Amino acid sequence: MRKAILYISLLFSLAAQASHGSKSGKHKSTGKSSPVSSSHKKQRKAGKSTAKHQTRSSHQPKPITDPSLLVLASPSETRSANTENTGSTGEGQIEPAPTETASALQFKYAIKLDMEVESLPQTVLLEKLDGLYGTRYQMGGLSRKGIDCSGFTSYIYASVYGIEIPRISGDQYLFVKHIPMEDLREGDLVFFRTQPHKFVSHVGVYIGNDRFAHASVKQGVTISSLTGDPYYRDHFVGAGRIESKMNADLRTGGNFQVASSELISNQ
Fold it and tell me: CB under 8 Å to 186, separation ≥6 — which residues?
């Protein structure tokens, strides 16, 4: 009996030792991390943060230097690039294109002549033409009440170029240097035979793009097409240039004396 009790006690003792060893092993495997493993985790975390910062830095926007990309630029960047590409004044202002500084008169005649503003005749010529535009035709007339074709060309040459030319269209034809139609330039004279008994009976001033200004019997001072209008195309006899007008100083405003001591009136 005593032996049986000792045997049972030994079994309980062995069972208790086995249970203690199992708990000890479990504690070791699931316990807190050692200082070495904690430091390792911090290093891994710092590495990830650095890599993430570098990735973000590599995607920072760069200044736009390509003009083709200015659509994406800010207004200040666009203004800066435009100044570099188009040129600027000394104060950094962008120089306007000619069309931006054109007057109402220039736009008016750009439409009438079907021309670009930059290609229009001299402004003084346009001003003098506009001042008489629509004036009725009057044989021998030389005022805003009435004017004839040679009176009109005489006035234009006196007031625009400061040059006195003969008063009669036939005499003007003899006065000029004759040139081919294809060589016509602003200010040249164009001549027509509109009366059977005269070789030259009508004259106008060429202003560009196949157009000439003249005093028409039916329309008064107007603009016509040299080749587009069948009447003037069929009655054209020649063109002429007064060389001195190419170097003449353009005059501005006022009344100017013309051939035969006649004066364009403001009335």
Answer: 121, 122, 125, 206, 207, 208
**CA pair distance 191, 232, nearest whole angstrom:** 9
Residue pLDDT tens, the chain, 267 long: 555 555 566 566 666 665 555 544 444 444 444 444 455 554 555 555 555 545 444 444 444 344 333 333 333 333 333 434 444 444 444 444 455 677 899 999 999 999 998 889 889 999 999 999 999 999 999 999 999 999 999 999 999 999 999 999 999 999 999 999 999 999 999 999 999 888 999 999 999 999 999 999 999 999 999 999 999 999 999 999 998 765 554 443 334 444 333 445 444
- CATH for 139: 3.90.1720.10
Does residue 171 lie within any of the structural domains? yes
Residues 135 and 74: their CA atoms lie apart, in Å, by 55
Residue 154 lies in a domain: yes
* Inside any domain, residue 32: no
> H helices of the chain, where?
2-30, 35-57, 75-86, 104-113, 123-132, 149-156, 169-175, 230-235
CA separation for the pair 169, 206 (Å, rounded)? 15
Tokens of 235: 């009655």
Q: Is residue 156 within 8 Å of 190, Cβ to Cβ?
A: no
Q: Which residues are catalytic?
A: 149, 202, 214
Question: Is position 243 within any domain?
Answer: yes
CA 225 – CA 61 distance, rounded (Å): 59
Residue 244 is classified by DSSP as: G
Please identify which residue in the block is written with the tokens 């009435």: 146
Local structure of 214: helix, strand or coil: strand
Number of domains in the chain: 1
State which residues form the domain around 157: 119-261
